[in-house]
Structures are given as C-alpha cells and as structure tokens.
Design a protein that fits this description.
Layout (H helix, E strand, L loop, with lengths): L1 H24 L4 E5 L5 E3 L6 E6 L4 E7 L5 E7 L7 E2 L1 E2 L7 E8 L2 E8 L2 E10 L5 E9 L5 E10 L1
Antiparallel strand pairs: 1-3, 1-12, 2-12, 3-4, 4-5, 5-7, 6-8, 8-9, 9-10, 10-11, 11-12
Length: 156
C-alpha cells in the first residue's frame, strides 16, 4: 500500500510539473494590462482601463472601464483550429463567434463574426522577451463605423 501511494504521489507530481511547463511555454498565458499611452484607438475614444487574462487553455477574459466610465467584461476562447467558437459578454465589435489560427509561436490571428458575418480581424503578437502583447484590430462596430486599433499591453 505504501509503495502504491508513493507511485501515485510521483505520478501526480509529474503531471503537475508537466502542466506548469506547458503553461510557461505558451507566451500568451498570463495577465496583461493595456498601456493607454502606447495604444491608439481610431476613431476612439479609448477605454479608461482594461485588463486581459489569458489562461493556458486559451480562454481569454477582458475586464475594464470603458470610455464612458462603465465597467465592461467579455471573453472568448482562442483555439487555433480555425473553427468558430462563441464569445461571451459584450465584445466591442458586437461579435458572437471567434475563429483563430496560429501564425507562429508568438502570433495568433483571429476573426470575429456577428451572425455569421465577418466584423473584425485581430492579430495578437507577444514580444520575443514575453513582456508585451500587441493587438492590431480592424473591423466594423455595431453601428457600422470602421475602426482600427493598436492595443499595447504589458505583462503583469
């Protein structure tokens, strides 16, 4: 019995260590805060604050305060198989699905759709040192107005 417990404990430790290594290998996983001084929102206005949490499984949650001072929260899964997955909350472009593909180890491109119609393309790129996430997004908001945003986030 003691031997069985030892084997089980070693296996459990190995699985936990493997999970931590996988999380470290994903350059996107972590918490990112928008640097408003380096970001550009066209036509704007910019949010007052925004924090993006990207877990190792690819689920992204975004929380912050919009330009009008109201709290916002939304999320989406980034699974790089190019299949559509539902978003949650009020994504700024009004999108209800997202499809993603990996460009390289530090770059992912996503397409947001609303009712099956394309509304936004965004490229997420993590710097080689892993400290900065840059999001380049272009699309159309729910009012039909075009936007082009450069969002720079620092790892927390």
């Amino acid at each position: 019995m003691k031997r069985l417990l030892t084997v089980f404990a070693v296996m459990l430790f190995a699985l936990a260590a493997g999970g931590l290594l996988l999380a470290e290998r994903d350059p996107f996983a972590g918490t990112w805060k928008v640097d408003l001084a380096k970001s550009k929102y066209d036509p704007g206005p910019a949010p007052q604050s925004q924090t993006r949490t990207w877990d190792p499984s690819g689920n992204v949650s975004v929380e912050g305060i919009n330009a009008a001072g109201k709290p916002v929260a939304y999320g989406y899964p980034i699974k790089t198989d190019s299949k559509d997955y539902p978003t949650t909350g009020a994504v700024p472009s009004g999108a209800d699905t997202i499809a993603a593909k990996r460009i390289d180890a530090n770059t992912v491109e996503v397409n947001f759709k609303k009712g099956g119609k394309h509304v936004e393309t965004a490229r997420f790129a993590v710097s080689k040192d892993g400290k900065v996430l840059t999001i380049t997004a272009k699309g159309t908001d729910p009012k039909g107005q075009s936007f082009s945003n450069l969002v720079v986030c620092d790892r927390q």
